[in-house]
Give the backbone structure.
Amino acid sequence: MLMLEKRPQPSKAWTLAAPLLAVVLTMICGGLLFAALGKAPIETIRTIFFDPLFSEFAWFYRPQLLIKGAPLALIAIGLSFGFRAGIWNIGAEGQYIVGAICGAAVGLAFYPTESFLIFPLMVIAGVLGGTLWALIPGILKVKFDTNEILVSLMLVYVAEQLLASMALGALRNPDGMGFPGSRNLAKYDSASSWISENAGMHWGVVAAMIAVIFAYVTLSRHQFGFNVRLAGQSPRAARFAGVNPKLLVLVCMGISGGLAGAAGLFEVAGPAGQISIDFNVGYGFTAIIVAFLGRLHPIGILLAAGLMALTYIGGEIAQSNLGLPGAAIQLMQGMLLFFLLMVDVLTNYRLRFGKGATI
Amino acid sequence: MDLSAINPVLLLASLMVAATPIILAAVGELIVERAGVLNLGVEGMMITGAVCGFIVAVNTGSPLLGFIGAAIGGAMLSLLFGFLTQFLLANQVATGLALTLFGLGLSALMGQNYIGIKAPEFPDWHIPLLGDIPVIGPIVFQHDPMVYVGLAIVVAVWAFLKYSRAGLILRAVGENHEAAHALGYHVVRVRMLAIMFGGACAGLGGAYLSLVRVPQWTEGMTAGAGWIALAIVVFASWKPMRLLLGAYLFGGVTVLQLNLQAAGMAIPVEYLSMSPYLATIAVLVIMRAGRAPGSLGQSFHASR
């Protein structure tokens, strides 16, 4: 009989090996899935995971990696603080949308003035928008003890409706001949987040890098990072150590919302270009997978964001070249999280063969 | 705006229909949570049920078989959650989220050839005598059978938890799994059964959307209904009868805003569409939840 025995400490080796094993298992199962869909499994896996990096057209895809990876890393870094402390902000998608709306609104208000001050103002507005949107579930949790998972998620649907009304109403391009969607911010020099469009560099990429470094230092060297980890591992011990649990909720929600809002702003002012009804593509939800796959560790999140960006781009290539349905990629991303959670049992438990209590 | 276009009888009648998918999904989750398991994957199981039910119903021409297929589909998906959380002791919050993301992808893949097809007709019952009562008849007694199945499940769950021995064991497992284990109950077995029941109910709720309410298959069609069902379980303080109240309240807001949209209210459509979600938040804030089951969300590992 197979048994699980709790490890006194989580295994260091498995902490690192689990994500890798999960990726391998996902490739295998993904291959089986593609075979079931009538595609050549090995070729499809190669198209998704290797072609964007090493094929003859890789020069075209590599910049895309930065574009897709930056918002994922930025949002996931924010989420990782809360997830470590057991505060579950699931509504990053909504905060991303509201950040984009607020930032874009500031930029559009100044159109067509040119000034180097406009973009920083937009960033501030985006961060503020995301933070405030995330503080709604935070404050409700602190004041009324409501469940932050449910409230933050409900606010995603509210934000989506808000986005639609903005694209059709207040922020609609007055010169757009009645089509929904705002002016193109990427073509408005003072508001564009592009640094070099050909290299895929925009300010979001820079912000993601800064966030990774900042998060790394905070978590490993600063009292706040220690408090976050302590609250997650032992809420009681944290209380004795003088950690204010309510303040922690607000700060963690605020950080994750602010970074998600920033990601939204950089996206709307660069790669997306405008506020439109279908502006959000699910980065806020994929970032949850990224945060877990990166073990809630800043460096891990950076790598995981790269990998998820790869599946997005590779998925698009497979979609156009091999006719793979887009949903198959979405399914594979979900599968990856499942395998990770599955393999993670080995991090905390040891497998034992022998007789004993059956479960 | 023409408020006289809103017929109160029709409004109340459609309220019962709008509340049904939420009732079905929420009553399943209620049993799961009373057994001490927090399954946040309701949305994923619901949408998988929606697509499974739709595929079966279209291919067999029978909505009834569709609902059975949906229940099986939802239960199968919930087994995945059960295996991870009960046997591999994975974090229930993370696994539930994974189940939702996975279910959304799976359903989109399964349903890609079924977009734009109409579901087979699922006729309303006109219950003789009762259905002929003026006003009350059309409101309560002229619906499709699933409305009554949903209500029957709620009553059955209430009786099961209150009067049956099995219900008592399930509550014991949810309140204190260590003690239940010490008494010799199979904690994991009870929980697996509860999880499967929850999955089957969520599947039925999803199929009600794709077969009766809409009735079509579109990607992401549950649009948060599973999350609202989770909120309603909290609102109901884990009590089956209060769950009906929450679901009808939600159904009422949904139907009212749809009617106001149709009546051409001066508020933009988008703001009216927000109202069910805002109402759910308001309900979570105003209604102080009762006490949650003692072992809710904790993994159980029999150390010996």
About this structure: Residues 3-115+141-286 of chain B form a domain with the ABC transporter involved in vitamin B12 uptake, BtuC fold (CATH 1.10.3470). DSSP finds twelve helices and no strands in chain B. Chain B touches chain A through 48 residues (CB under 8 Å).
